[in-house]
Amino acid sequence: EPxxxxxxxxxxCDGGPCPPLGxxxxxxxVKVSANASTGSEIGTVSGEHSAAGCTVLPCxxxxxxxxxxxxxxxxxxxxxxxxxxxxGTVACKDNGSPASCSGPFPYGDxxxxxxxxxxxxxxxxxxxxxxxxxxxxxxxxxxxxxxTEPSTVSVTFGLIPTNPSTLSVxx
Length: 171
Hints:
The chain is an all-beta fold. 0% of the residues lie in helices and 50% in strands. Strands 12-11-14-17-16 form a 5-stranded antiparallel sheet, with no helix packed on it. A 4-stranded antiparallel sheet has the order 2-1-3-6, with no helix packed on it. It is rod-shaped.
């Protein structure tokens, strides 16, 4: 039974392939295992009836009645953070919707970071690590990437230099 991730469930009967579900006979030794797809993980496993003891995989039991094993696959979460220096606004989106800039985000989601300096400040540095590496554009003040590993965006706003005033003293 899938969650929001992906993977495959393998079922063996008496050490080999199983007949079609529903045709597995009484007393058959059943072994259930699973493999999560990239970006997914196996969630909490549960079983009913003959498989009631199935809480981890692989799980083995003797079939004595109609039984069920639930193997959910959940998307992994990837850590994300923004490091900000100086004064400005930082906004984040997860798949186009406003989101916190201090993750985590589900594996494979599209993360967009938009930065804007406050008055009197300028954007000096906008860089990323992990999935954000090479995905930041200082010209537009944005980073946009598919998150597949722990990632960080660093933004530095600096004060805009002002023209120095001169003072002349005459005698």
